[in-house]
User: Which sequence fits this backbone?
């Protein structure tokens, strides 16, 4: 999960921290990644976050947009690796189903 520094510290507790450079539109930013025991609940299912990250060096505009958008963070696809996420944008609904390796989604 990508979030702000304060949330990163709260969620990670400083566990297994790693820092490295990342390229963003030709500019090098610093990514701070740490393990976390934190979980989120989505569609009644508890999902482990596993890692939390914050980016240092983003522009003032990027920080402003994130702060005033009301987002607490963003996540990528890894959170859903063993799930089937179905989005119904027209009806503003979603389903989150378990997808075990021995069972094909229906």
Assistant:
């Amino acid at each position: 999960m990508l979030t702000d520094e304060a949330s990163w510290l709260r969620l990670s507790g400083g566990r297994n921290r790693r820092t490295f450079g990342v390229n963003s539109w030709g500019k090098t930013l610093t990514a701070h990644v740490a393990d976390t025991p934190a979980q989120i609940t989505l569609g009644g299912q508890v999902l482990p976050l596993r890692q939390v990250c914050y980016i240092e060096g983003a522009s003032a505009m990027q920080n402003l947009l994130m702060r005033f958008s009301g987002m607490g963070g963003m996540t990528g696809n890894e959170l859903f690796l063993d799930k089937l996420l179905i989005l119904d944008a027209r009806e503003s609904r979603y389903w989150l189903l378990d997808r075990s390796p021995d069972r094909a989604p229906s």
